[in-house]
Design a protein that fits this description.
Helix content is 38%, strand content 18%. The chain is an alpha+beta fold. The protein folds into four domains: 129 residues, 2-Layer Sandwich (Methyltransferase, Cobalt-precorrin-4 Transmethylase, Domain 2), CATH 3.30.950; 79 residues, no CATH class; 137 residues, Heat Shock Protein 90, CATH 3.30.565.60; 88 residues, Arc Repressor Mutant, subunit A (Orthogonal Bundle). The two termini are 40 Å apart.
């Protein structure tokens, strides 16, 4: 990042670079520049640098205060509307503290304290009273970003009220008193920028983003006939596939279906972060799946793909690139391709602040697989996630959702499980005891599986597994976490401690 800042300093102020002294606090016109960059082509804002490009620095005792101000005001619709979620960076240049904010081009028109700013080589200028420039700005945004396309004949009756209600509930879970909880469906959609007016043509209505998030399936298929996400497993039958689903529904449920597919086929090694057990599989693929759905160019017929192979998962989707080549996580800032979609996913807890999701994938990907993740930016955005060695059918001892017999070879663990099950009930048959053992062993390696996943692993009926799970649940060996639709079974904390896991 230091090299990038030095390059910006060498270039000086221009359409993409702006410097502010900010010795002890934010300059009064800081958000004029933030707003202008968002409305134009993005840019770089350096605080602690004068107009001549000389690094004066920020008083060290004021750095955190300024960062807190930036973050708070960027999330305050009275200051910046609509709000944005950016991450200020602190860097030492010439032994002085500066703050660097990389600002992407936005898919929306932003204002600060009711004023709309645009950017040119002379700096930031207020275009609020110039209706022609404002119209041109809205037109340019609508032509550049897929999600903002207006479908004037799309009505509230074409959308699913149950999905809107679900998003409202998920947002309230993320933040108590979330404003969406008290809004009608129409008000919520307008608040989320799913309804807009084209100031060039006068047309107004719901956007493609509204249809993608909340539309009935037949509506989505009518607007985007080629739209789908193709998820495949190619481990045994590498010429075709071992398992496959084509996802053509709304983005809310697409996320659920794709995450269930991941949980069905990929292991989840036991991992502790501090004193808390976490699912590194879910941490990684939550970001990968959300990224695939959020940052896609939906007017292109290229289908998104999620391909699980023996040692890697590859995800591809068509997008509008802001650069080309392999992404370096230490010097990377993502640009939102569809900011309205991203904002809804963020409000319901399915996406993080810009850039942090990719960094999380790199952080946990190193712990999960044998190689570091790879992200490649281009017309087709590609992510490659390495898998734990020997965990998929073909070479390893564990099979998750594939053809073949499940075997888990660990004598010490088997002895401990025998002792555990004997203390609970010494009258069960050997067949049932063995099945209980295998259920527990599977959940050790892949927590969060559903009953049908376990039935497939053990080659028994769903009825048998559900009866087993009821028994194990009553004995406090397993617990169910999450919603009925997307949740799964986990071993209880007491059992994990007893097994010394």
């Amino acid at each position: 990042m230091k090299e990038q800042i030095q390059k910006i300093l060498a270039e000086g102020e221009n359409q993409l670079n702006e410097f502010k002294k900010s010795r002890t606090g934010l300059n009064k016109n800081t958000f004029d520049s933030v707003c202008a960059f968002l409305n134009r082509s993005g840019g770089n804002l350096l605080l602690g640098v004068n107009d001549n490009g000389e690094v004066e620095g920020i008083e060290e005792s004021k750095v955190q205060k300024i960062i807190d101000q930036l973050v708070s005001l960027m999330n305050n619709p009275q200051k910046l509307s609509p709000p944005v979620y950016l991450i200020p960076k602190v860097e030492d240049i010439d032994e002085k503290k500066i703050i660097y904010l990389q600002i992407p081009e936005s898919s929306q028109v932003h204002s600060t304290v009711g004023k709309i700013f645009d950017r040119n080589y002379d700096g930031d200028f207020n275009i609020t009273g110039n209706h022609k420039l404002v119209e041109d700005l809205y037109l340019r945004k609508s032509n550049s970003f897929t999600e903002s396309v207006i479908y004037k004949y799309l009505t509230l009756s074409d959308l699913r009220p149950d999905l809107i209600s679900r998003v409202r509930k998920l947002a309230s879970i993320q933040r108590s008193g979330h404003p969406w909880t008290s809004m009608t469906d129409d008000e919520l959609l307008k608040s989320a920028k799913m309804y807009r007016k084209d100031f060039k043509t006068g047309e107004e209505g719901f956007t493609l983003a509204a249809a993608l998030l909340f539309g009935k399936d037949e509506v989505i298929h009518n607007i985007l006939p080629a739209y789908k996400t193709d998820a495949l497993v190619r481990v045994i039958n590498t010429d075709r596939f071992d398992d496959r689903i084509e996802v053509r529904t709304n983005l809310i449920e697409s996320y659920d279906v794709l995450m269930d597919f991941i949980r069905k086929h990929l292991p989840d090694p036991f991992f502790m972060e501090g004193d808390q057990r976490i699912s590194i599989r879910d941490r990684i693929f939550r970001e990968v799946v959300a990224n695939t759905l959020i940052h896609r160019e939906y007017l292109n017929a290229f289908p998104a793909k999620l391909i699980i192979e023996e040692q890697k998962v590859t995800v591809e989707n068509w997008n509008r690139p802001f650069g080309h080549g392999i992404i370096d996580p230490s010097n990377y800032y993502t640009h939102p391709k569809n900011q309205n979609l991203m904002e809804v996913f963020k409000q319901i807890g399915r996406a993080d602040e810009l850039g942090s999701g990719v960094r999380n994938v790199f952080k946990y990907g190193k712990l999960y697989g044998s190689d570091e993740p790879v992200f490649e930016e281009g017309d087709v955005f590609k992510a490659i996630i390495s898998l734990p060695k020997g965990h998929l059918a073909g070479k390893g001892k564990f099979s998750f959702g594939m053809e073949g017999t499940l075997t888990i070879e660990n004598d010490t663990l088997s002895d401990e499980l025998n002792e555990l099950l004997d203390t609970i009930n010494d009258t069960i048959s050997d067949t049932i005891k063995t099945r209980y053992q295998n259920i527990i062993k599977i959940l050790i390696k892949s927590p969060g599986l559903r009953a049908n996943n376990l039935a497939g692993e053990l080659k028994v009926s769903d009825v048998t597994i559900r009866r087993d799970m009821q028994k194990l649940f009553k004995q406090s060996i397993v617990e169910f976490k999450g919603s009925k639709k997307t949740g799964g079974y986990y071993l209880t904390t007491d059992i994990l401690k007893r097994l010394k896991l």
